Amino acid sequence: MSKNVVIVGTQWGDEGKGKIVDLLTEEVAAVTRFQGGHNAGHTLVIEGKKTVLHLIPSGILHDNVDCLIGNGVVISLSALIIEATKLIESGIPVYDRLKISPGCPIILPSHEALDAAKELKLAGKAIGTTGRGIGPVYEDKVARRALRISDLLDTNKLAIRLAEILEYHNFLLKNYYEVDELNFDEVYANLIEQRQIILPLINDVSRILEKLQSEERNILFEGAQGVFLDIDHGTYPYVTSSNTVAAAASIGTGLGPKDLNHVLGIIKAYTTRVGSGPFPTELFDASGEHLGKVGVEFGATTGRPRRCGWFDAIAAKRAIRNSGISSLCVTKLDVLDGLSKIKICTGYELDGEVIDDFPLDVSRLDDCKPIYKTFDGWASSSVGVISYDQLPSNARYYLEWIEDELNVPIDIVSTGPDREQTIIKKNPFS
Description:
The protein is globular and about 65 Å long. Strand 13 (341-350) and strand 14 form a beta hairpin. The protein folds into 3 domains: 4-101 and 203-259, Adenylosuccinate Synthetase, subunit A, domain 1 (Adenylosuccinate Synthetase, Chain A, domain 1), CATH 3.40.440; 109-198, Adenylosuccinate Synthetase, subunit A, domain 2 (Orthogonal Bundle); 267-424, Adenylosuccinate Synthetase, subunit A, domain 3 (Adenylosuccinate Synthetase, Chain A, domain 3, Alpha-Beta Complex), CATH 3.90.170. The protein is built from 12 helices and 17 strands. By secondary structure, it is of the alpha/beta class. Helix 4 (109-122) packs across helix 5 (134-142) and helix 4 (109-122) runs parallel beside helix 6. Strands 6-5-2-7-1-8-12-16-17 form a 9-stranded mixed sheet, with helices on both faces. Strands 11, 13, 14 and 15 form a 4-stranded mixed sheet that branches. It has a two-stranded antiparallel sheet with strand order 3-4.
């Protein structure tokens, strides 16, 4: 019997989803992106060779696997073509494997200009976006004025729709943000050029998924960012502009929720965050330095250093609830090697009281003082270990404590960046 598995990040993104998607792609007929855009940064390391993907699904390196971009994804055509070209130059037949939903909104240069201008105007209150136009295009989608992939099918319609959108964008750029406007002819000419590449890729993603279902083929749904960047359930307003929780896999592809069989939550053995926003367990000491240095914690998309902190069990429990997590994959366990003491946040102190969940006003996470349980570290290396029994005993105790505390099984443990550096206790497709 076939199985559909949704992969989501259960922190603030950068949990290592790309590696796990790539690993599990061997089990599936299709990998499907369902939200976000080229603000994602999914890193794959195979036999020491690193590939960073921003928009193209992480199954693209595999033969005989459909890589689908669902309607919930926003697409920069230039970013897609640049990313595809690099992969093609390395021998990957991207355009033979890639299919795009006609419902995907298109990111225009004016969206990027608006994104940059907005962050500049916010100054010290900036959200810390990637500046890639993601927020503005989702705003246009909700306002029902977005240009979509389907608009590329008719050049006359494309010109009319683009003129309407640019008129609105240019008004904002000139009169509110006081920056340069964009030229219609230049934007339109680029779209016409890109259109020739994109047209053969347009397909009904929901019908493809339905057909695979009828053939009893496995499907993997690839989320971007993390649960706490969700527009509804994250640390608002320091969030992305899409829904990152597992339920978005249905909305962003057109496959009904009853067909989603398993949700695999990817979670680091510690916690990181890029950009602004509350982070209760953030560290500013030698332990934080260790996590950042050993974990090579720099954003794959932005290059910005990630903020590092201890594992937050309170946040993890909330993520599990919000996304209906069936099992967990713990990544970067090896980064904790060599630390004499390791901590896990088990509660928060707020206004003199102990709480076991986020405060009702999520902005007050900034005022929450973490309550820690301390664990003995391990001196021996876990790097590259592929058998659970061969992990240092204290590492196993650490994982088992997390498993018991969260009441969710840990099925996979990553012990290094390479595809092969992985412990699989239970395959989610089994």
